[in-house]
Amino acid sequence: MKTIDNAVLAFYEEGGEYHRLRTGIGLIEFERTKEILLENLPTPPAVIYDIGGAYGEYAWWLASLGYEMHLFDLSETNIKMSKTLAEEYPGCSLAASEVCDARNVPRADNSADAVLLMGPLYHITDRTERSKAVKECHRLLKSGGLLCSAALTPYAVLLDKLTVYSPEGRSYLESPDFMSMVERELKDGCHINPNKEVYAGLGSSHLHTAKALKAELRAGGFSDTVVHGVMGGAWLANDIDELWKNEKSRNVLMHTVRLLDTHEEIIGLSGHLLAVSKKR
Question: How many CB atoms lie within 10 A of CB 219?
Fold first, then answer.
C-alpha cells in the first residue's frame, strides 16, 4: 500500500496487534484513551466510525455502551480477529466490521457523529496521503462532529531506548544507524526504519509534535483541537504489568498522567498523543 511500510502491514497481518492494549504501556494507553473518549463523545446511540481501529478493542467497548460502531481497518487479519471480542461483550454487536483504507471509507457524507482515527496518522508516511485521510474524516462527519486522532511523538523512540538494551546487551544509543534515525525523526518527524532494519520497534512512520498535529488537523477542516498526552511520563515506569495489578499503584500512575495531560511544556514526554477536534 502506497506510503505504508510493508513491515507495518505484515505486523498486523500476523496478528501483532492482538492484546497489545492489555499489557505494558498499552494498559495506560487504553485506560486513559477511554477516559478522554467518555469526556468528549456525544451520548449513545451516536454513530461512530472507528477507522484504522485494528481488531476493535475501542469499537467493542463503545458498542457495549450503546454506540452504533462501524469498525474499519486495512488489515484483513484484524477484521477477522474482531469477531473474537464478541465473547467478551455478550449481547453486543458491531454495526459493521470491514476491510478498507482510511483514505476511502465506504460511507455517505455527513453520516457519523464521531470518528476515531487511531493509527493512520502515524502509519501513513506521506503528508499528502495523511491529508486525504483527515479530509475523508471531515467528509464523513456531520457538522460539528467530533474527530479523535491518535499520533506518536518524535521523542518516543529515543526516550524509550535510553533505558532499554538490545538483545545483544548493548545500548541502542551505541548504534550509529539508530542514532541517525532518531536525529532524523527529531528534525522532521520522519521515522525511517524500512522493514524494521534499524531496530525491531516501529516500521517507517510519521511522528507528530502537538503543534504539527494541530496544524494538519486545521488544514483538513477541523478546529477547537485539544491535544492530550495520553501516557504522560507513566509509560517509563518499570514493570507496568505488576504496578497495574495493585489498585493503589495503578491509581497513582493514572493520576500522574492526568496531571500532565495538556501541559504544553511537557506533552511531548508522552509517547502517544490524542487530539480531539470538531468539524468546522
Answer: 13
Weakly modelled stretches of the chain, pLDDT under 50: none
Give the sign of the dihedral formed by CA 134, CA 150, CA 17, CA 206.
Answer: positive
pLDDT on residue 171: 84
Check residue 166 and give its pLDDT: 63
Q: What is the dihedral of CA 136, 138, 142, 147, to 10 degrees?
A: 110
278 phi/psi in degrees, rounded to 5? -120, 145
Residue range 228-253, pLDDT digits in tens: 999 999 999 999 999 999 999 999 99
pLDDT reported for residue 262: 92
Burial of 194 (0-12, 13-18, 19+ CB in 10 A): exposed
Alpha-helix runs per DSSP H in the chain = 6-13, 25-40, 57-64, 76-81, 120-123, 127-140, 156-161, 176-188, 210-219, 240-245, 247-260
The C-alpha atoms of residue 120 and residue 123 are separated, in whole angstroms, by 5
Q: Taking a C-beta distance cutoff of 8 angstroms, is the pair 9, 1 a contact?
A: yes
